[in-house]
Amino acid sequence: MTSGAGVPRGGPRPVRVLLGVLGVVQLGVGVLGLVGELGPPQLLGLLGWLAAAVALHDGVLVPLTHAVGRPLRRLTGTWRPASAVVLRGGLVVGAMVALPVPALVRAQRQSSNPTLLTGDYALAVGVVWLILAVMVAGLVLVIERRGAGARPRGDASGSGR
Q: Measured between alpha carbons, how far is 72 from 80 in angstroms, rounded to an integer?
């Protein structure tokens, strides 16, 4: 049994407390390591990068996620839960595949050693996205066809409520 916030009645379990303490200790070791290794100008630069990361996350990524998430929820609202999970997982993997592309393309263009980075990375990412899209579509079709005639999503009793 849990309370409304997902915390077990009687307080958090000892394992959760231990993991929380270990996380705080690791954070402290990391901060002390940074202060010991970096000088004041580097620490200020790091703080600037961290502030920019928070601004990028809160100002761009969160609104973009919500803008994509609402129509996606409408689209997948009648799908079986497994299909929605497959689609969302495919979108996350596709986004993660795209992350290193700008750095790789820039390194390929500026490299004085042409054998260091071989291949057309933009084309490779496009091929990966195409394969990913076909796999996701195939999995969704299989899941939805197997689920045809099954009870509607969210209906655990089978009574249609």
A: 14
